[in-house]
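Methods, example record. To illustrate the input and output format used throughout this study, we show the complete record for FecCD family ABC transporter permease. The sequence lines were provided to the predictor; the line carrying structure tokens was produced by it.
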Amino acid sequence: MICKTRQTKALGLLLFTLLLLYGMWASIIYGYVDTDIKTAVNAFTNYNGSNEHIIIKTVRLPRSLIAAAVGASLAVAGAILQVLTKNPLASPSLLGINAGASFFIVCSVSVFSIQSLQAFTWIAFLGAAVTACLVFIIASIGREGLTPIKLTLAGVAIGAVFSSFTQGLLVLNEALLDEVLFWLSGSVQGRKLEMLTSVLPYLIIAWLGAAIMAGKLNILLLGDDVSRGLGQRTQLVKGILVLIVILLAGSSVAVAGPIGFVGIIVPHVARAFVGLDYRWVLPYSAVLGGILLLAADIGARYILMPQEVPVGVMTAVIGTPFFIYIARKGGIAK
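The corresponding predicted structure is encoded as:
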């Protein structure tokens, strides 16, 4: 643990927040069409309709805000899931959220010929929510109720089923792949600000809920028996936390598609800075998650310029070595 006192933790959070703001600013400035600080400022204070100003206001700004919000949400969702499942490799995809959202998108295009990106937002959110609720219900069946191993197994099983259905639809209609590939790869490119604002109320509710439940997560770390002994209604707390994960991950997948590894990597980094107090782990995860996705998105613009690599590919490249390290290290996430 690097930050041992409240003062150093607060200072670290402030510094990372400033880095997040710089990353958002860099996301607005840098890309195929490079601009400078003066041009970016003028785009908001003295808009003249030039090509640079249009790009900054209609492309770069939404992209920056979406990357920060999605990165923060995925990281917080991953931190919560790693406690719920006691699995250091847990992330939103563990609940089958990515697979469920992907299936609903592919099905909507294949069966109903839907093409609207705005419609994809709500369809993906519905798919993510339905899948996570289904996993939660299945994992809660039985005398012991919701347990980490049952939640993990239910998520893996349901995710595998939906992934198989998705692959089956794509095999039957290969032309369909071209229509949904941009979404399945996970990206913040080309997303409109309206897509973020449409799910922002759910994100705000989930962010506030996570902050309120941070203390409950600390008690859950002690184990279910100790948690019940301290008077905590364990099953109710777990249900609320799963709902928060559904809102965070469902909204993120709806806007940016299935972006992996952010929810795995960031909570471990946050715990390395502040230890196991989730009153600090969650805000650190939010800020670090935004920084990671912004950095990955900026890097994705330059690798194959003028073409861009989907940010989901970049996070996979960054996250795979970390995933292997955590898997070899083993242990239970706390």
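Annotations derived from this record:
The chain has a mean pLDDT of 87.
The chain has 13 helices and no strands.
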